[in-house]
Amino acid sequence: MVEENKVNEWYSISELANLFGITPRTIRYYEEVGLLSSRKRESETQQRYYDKRARGRLKLILRGKRFGFSLNEIREILDLYDVDPTEKEQLKKTLAYGEEKIKEIDEMIHELSVIKEEMVELFDRFKNKLQDLEKEDD
Questions:
Q1: pTM of the full structure
Q2: What pairs with residue 12 in β-bridges?
Q3: In 39-87, which ranges are continuous DSSP H helix?
Q4: How far apart are CA 103 and CA 114, in angstroms?
């Protein structure tokens, strides 16, 4: 990973990608769908540069994706910060979406437990049947 650029707080797309262990294409996609924005530095080439705010947004986007939020949910949460700098509305929306995700995870855990029980039961039955068949061969 690249060390943080603390001198000027600007990151090239490759620096930002390396910092988070993602591809530049991922960053471009988030920019295309309006989750991130870049700037072109006047004194330099047409290369995209990202500021500290974009870096923070990317961190939140990736965390949201890891927690199972959709890009639309993430956009809604991030956009609330621009409307309400107190963060109250953003926190309320994050908590509401978070509660939904926790319920979904609980349901998935339950479903996986049921599937595991069924598999263990079948495994035991098959194992016993195989043992019986092997006894018959003796």
A1: 0.74
A2: 49
A3: 52-66, 71-83
A4: 17
Judge whether 36 and 78 are in contact, CB under 8 Å.
no
Cβ count within 10 A of residue 17: 19
Domain ranges of the chain: 1-66
Query: pLDDT by residue (tens digit) across 53-110?
Result: 999 999 999 999 999 999 999 999 998 888 888 889 999 999 999 999 999 999 999 9
Angle, to 10 degrees, between the axis of helix 24-32 and the axis of helix 52-66? 90
CATH number for the segment(s) 1-66 = 1.10.1660.10
CB contact set of 50 (below 8 Å; sequence gap of 6+): 10, 11, 12, 13, 16, 27, 36, 38, 39, 58
Give me the chain's average pLDDT, please. Answer: 89
Average pLDDT for 46-53: 87
Question: Residue for token digits 């437990």?
Answer: 113
Q: Which of 18, 14, 41, 42 is nearest to 28 (CA)?
A: 14
CA distances for 23 relative to 67, 133, 135, angstroms: 20, 54, 58
